[in-house]
Amino acid sequence: MRRAEACHRGFRDAERIIERAKAGGRLRADFGSQDLVTLVWAMSQVIRESMESAPGAWRRCLSFFLDGLRTEAAHPLPDELVR
């Protein structure tokens, strides 16, 4: 049960950070906690797939992801991606 509680607490903390970043104009307004889950999943796959052949490649990929999350880089998302 402790693991589940820690997971829920971490998720709530992440949601608060996301909301503060959006309110402060640093994070694109349409980013949500489910987007964070997808981002973490995608990065874990990049790390897993490149670990042996290019162990530092994930840093470049993460930089691209993070740049795209900034308010000034935001463009409307295609309709099929909107929740």
Question: Describe it for me?
Answer:
This protein is mostly helical. The chain contains three helices and no strands. It has helices at residues 2-23, 33-50, 57-69. The chain starts with a helix and ends in a 14-residue tail after the last helix. The mean pLDDT is 89.
Helix share bin: 55-70%
The number of helical segments is 3
Instruction: Give the overall average pLDDT.
Output: 89
β-strand amount: under 5%
Number of strands: 0
Shape category: flat
- Main sheet properties: none
User: Which regions are unreliable across 5 or more consecutive residues at pLDDT < 50?
Assistant: none
Order of helices and strands: HHH
Structural class: mainly alpha
| C-alpha termini separation | 31 Å
**CA gyration radius, whole angstroms:** 15 Å
Secondary-structure topology with pairs:
Layout: H1 2-23, H2 33-50, H3 57-69
Which terms summarize this structure?
83 residues, mainly alpha, 3 helices
Explain briefly what this protein structure is.
The chain is 64% helix and 0% strand. With 83 residues, it is an all-alpha fold.
